[in-house]
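re the bet — no i am not wrong, look at it urself. input seq straight from the record:
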Amino acid sequence: MVRSLLALLMLVLAVPAAAADKVASATSPGGVLALDITINGEGRVGYAVSRLGQPVIGESHVGFLLADAPQLLRNFQLTGQIRRSFDQSWEQPWGEWRTVRDRYNELAIGLEEKDKLKRRMTLVFRLYDNGIGFRYELPQQPNLNQVSITEELTQFRVVEPGEAWWSPAFESNREEYLYNRTPISGIATAQTPLTMRTASGVHIAIHEAALVDYSGMNVRQVENGLLEAVLTYSAAGPKVARATPFATPWRVLLITADAPSLYAANTLILNLNQPNALGDVSWVKPMKYVGIWWGMHLDTQTWHAGPKHGATTAYAMRMIDFAAKHGFGGVLIEGWNKGWEDWFATGDDFSFTEPYPDFDIARVAAHGRRKGVSLIGHHETSGNIAHYEDQLEAGLDLYQQLGVQAVKTGYVSDAGGIQARGPDGRIRFEWHEGQVMARHHLKVVREAARRRISINPHEPIKDTGLRRTYPNWVTREGQRGMEYNAWGEPKNPPEHEVNLVFTRMLSGPMDYTPGILSLRGRGDTAIPSTLARQLGLYVVIYSPLQMAADLPENYEANRRPFQFIKDVPVDWEDTRMLAGEVGDFAVIARKDRNSADWYLGAVGDEQERRFDVALGFLAPGRRYRAEIYRDGDRADYRTNPRDIVIENRTVTSGDRLAIRIAPGGGTAVRFVALK
């Protein structure tokens, strides 16, 4: 009897509690991706995505937990659907591609609760051939005027097993962790973008677009392959507090056949953002720069005043002279302003208008103007945005008066250590990617735009494509950069920079600060890289504000490889990934926006890689001088990192180029169009 009851119970548990009915469907313009919308017997709304007829995302539910009202999760019915198609190209003022095509089919479904509350929301899906974006739109309504979101319940059910590359969320060091490479089932709680490759070879990346006045999204694994959104915390309790009407950020799934097409799909995130809101942005100037920075990380200089102070008038003027001599547009100066003595503690002592006595900022700026070199300003806040916002306008006004074109901001503090002023005037401790910081960063970007200044935040909120709307938000950090190679162990292993290409770089430009031609860190420790790799990074890791991060004397001592850093542009007409695998290697070609020249960069992991690259991206019928900077035959980042071969040859679009990437190595090529 007991055995029969147990069998009956198992039979009941095996039957789905609420079968789902398909209520709407849509396909991408080329028929590559298909979307099904379902509502099950509980009134839970789900979506599923297939690629070329093969399921990719299984039935995944949507909804919200609210702090002051019943959850928005069950008991929904479909009230209508609206479809439209869109196909238009637009031009970026700067970027990896001059022209971006925005081509999608859109499905908007109206939903209403069947109970007495009758709360309404709309789900809007945009289907591209290489991914989908969807968001919630909550209209103003009697039973939902104010929304306090405890958690967003968006799911992503990955159908196939496979591998994942992900960085942990909610740890003390913000985004700055090496990537884990695990089975998809091994994802814990991860930041986005995170990238997966399924057993059948489909590449999937999860991210978000247009993060405005909302909390940043992470994902956690609920069960094998089922990932669910986890919003960033708020000191106020609810993770998001908004008045209706409003729309959430777009939830993004990039879905492609291989790694190179996954990288190219990052324009989808731009397309999900609003067009340029600033009008004329001809004043936003992509440029390469040098700076008073690397010496601090080597501990040969200090940010604060004293015998090793880096930002002195004399040294800054020498840096300007070096920049002018070698064609760099800017000089970053960190540590010029008062308050660095105890900067990591609270940030209370920073002044954003008062220089240290040994730094004459007006004189230095005037010297830069005479030399055609702009200062790049620096505002480190130590995460104390309450203190920073009190001085923000005055600090930006000073930079405007001095002719500063760009400002690097910083938010160094532990996770959960952002000091923000609450509505009651008291200081609360927030997270770097919470709703408070989403508001703060846009406040800084908008105030800077009013003064024709560009912004480059470090320890930032994630990039979600808002550079389309605010083109002065030119780049940012947001992962482990080159400074980790200065400090000691653990350094960034060679696979880290390749991981970045297919994870962090899907979201947008990164100020990685390459170009360490000394290949040495603090205490004369070795940097895990060959010389040629440091050059290849200028093409592979995209940023319109690109630093030559090493000390001037190390460039003077390495003039031949330094030539590539001087030559390589930072603004591109076109971009092609010629070969790539997540975490293993990337070979990228980019065309200069301001000439007929092309550039190629390649980096690999700890293994030797060989390629035979077709040069079909070059203009047919034209000859090019290929200026090649490659790993020597015995190059190896562990044993012979400085082995580099620099050579020229004449090529056409019909030729092929044999490339060897040494362990921890790379390649850089400049293709100069000949008359």
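see?? The chain has a mean pLDDT of 96. told u. also The domain at 287-571 is CATH 3.20.20.70 (TIM Barrel). so pay up
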